[in-house]
Amino acid sequence: MKITPFSSAFAALVLSLSFLGCSPKSDEADSKPEVALVMKSLANEFFQTMSKGAEDHAANNTESYSLIVNGIKNETDLGQQLNLVEQMVARGVDAIVIAPADSKALIPALKRATDAGVLVINIDNRLDKTAATQAGLNAPFVGPDNRAGAKAAASVLTEQLQSGDQVAIIEGVPTAFNGQQRRLGFEDALKESGAKIVSVQAGNWEMAKANTIAASLLTAHPNLKAILCANDSMALGAVAAIQAAGRTEVKVVGFDNISAIQPMIADGRVLATADQHGDQLAVYGIEAALAILAGEQAPADRTTAVDVISK
């Protein structure tokens, strides 16, 4: 497995986007809506795919809107994501489509955005409903049912388990709603099967951290049968640890269906993953924003498809 380090090119991209965000809209751009896509880490292939899908959609609809794509350095860089939101508001964008790195921490900044007249659409990771309501933030959610998707992916594993088999979970960022829901979905499937959950640890969506956790799990639990990972980047880290330990009987389940995981599905190193169609997820949010900007009533939350991918 090849692990590509965070590159200077990516750093330059983030920096250039930050400078772009500080510039006011041009007069030429005032005639059509300007939409800002604010994602999590562009070092994660899932968000690279999301970015590409959004850029392709914008390129095919240049007469309808213009798009600014922003991302942060890593999954937990909340300060940078807050800065990006503030930059987009200062620029005067018409809408922000955001995949928040944290389900609560972004809410005050997003409320300030809506107070400034910016439409906010929440994608991928749902904002905390109670906290949003208390803050007076109305941001429609467009995205998958992560709990159902994780349960469906884990069910491919549970068909091969016996009651009492030992399984571990590597979850994402514990304060992220989608991470919480994926963990719960895994737990739903495992509890129904009678499997024993021996450990739940946070990998923060990161390959390297998941690799370290998986290596420790394999040492601590010699009878471990499987590791369920809340995204495919962490599944890649778990697979590397399993290969290094010579424990190829340990099965892995992921979530996202990134391209790097697909050969591992084919050869059995990963048993299953959940495809939430990352190339279209931002597009769904952008289309919802454009419809509202065009005068349509703000829609109720929209649940998008999740499909299980296995050999």
Automatic annotation (TrEMBL):
Pfam families: Peripla_BP_4. InterPro entries: Peripla_BP_I (IPR028082), SBP_2_dom (IPR025997). It comes from the Bacteria. One of its GO terms (molecular function) is carbohydrate binding. It is found in: Cell envelope. Keywords: Signal. Residues 35-297 form the Periplasmic binding protein domain. One of its GO terms (cellular component) is cell envelope. Belongs to the bacterial solute-binding protein 2 family. This is Sugar ABC transporter substrate-binding protein. It comes from Pelagicoccus mobilis.
